[in-house]
Amino acid sequence: MPLPLALIAALTASTAFAPSSAAPAVQITKVYYDSPGVDRRSNTSLNGEYVTILNTTRRPVDLEQWTIKDKTGYTYTFGPDAVLGPGKKLTLRTGQGSDTPSTSYWGRRAYVWNNDKDIAYLRDPDGKLIDSCSYNSSRTDYRNCL
User: Fold this and answer.
1) How many CB atoms are closer than 10 A to CB 62?
2) In angstroms, rounded to a whole number, what is the distance separating the alpha carbons of residues 76 and 83?
3) What is the pLDDT along the chain (146 residues), one digit of tens a residue?
4) Which residues form a coiled coil (predicted)?
5) Whose CA is closest to 81, among 100, 107, 54?
6) In degrees rounded to 5, what are phi and psi of residue 43?
């Protein structure tokens, strides 16, 4: 039996204007893709390139096995000690260093983020896309993603 037109219209209207999903609990807030100075692959220059993420909740988020990846496929996987406190930010720097609660180091000796355009992807341990931030400009050195 076909549905009455009024019922079809009501169902369509209720889904067409449904509110968008809530903001993710962990968000990419900034991608600093063109580190200051000349790109000579020094550790200081590599660490000038980074991605910052923010926990928007009131609970800690265990980032173990979460990933940050660029469009090319360079992937960083957070280890077992990566816990993002409530309302806290964590910066992932491209170069080498000692991890702290607010800074992780990719450990690379080459740049990740293209200086003109790229996309940063944040995925949970199941591979679900949690957030992304894209940029397409060589006129600035970073992108604020919020």
Assistant:
1) 14
2) 15
3) 454 544 344 444 433 333 446 789 999 999 999 999 989 999 999 999 999 999 999 999 999 999 999 999 999 999 999 999 999 999 999 999 999 999 999 999 999 999 999 999 999 999 999 999 999 998 999 999 98
4) none
5) 100
6) -60, -35
d(CA 113, CA 97): 18
Phi, psi of 113 (to 5 degrees): -85, 130
Task: State which amino acid sits at residue 24.
Answer: P
User: Rounded distance, CA 50 to CA 29, Å?
Assistant: 11
Selection from 90, 113, 101, 123 nearest residue 24 by Cα: 123
Instruction: List the chain domain ranges.
Output: 21-144
What are 15's strand-pairing partners?
none
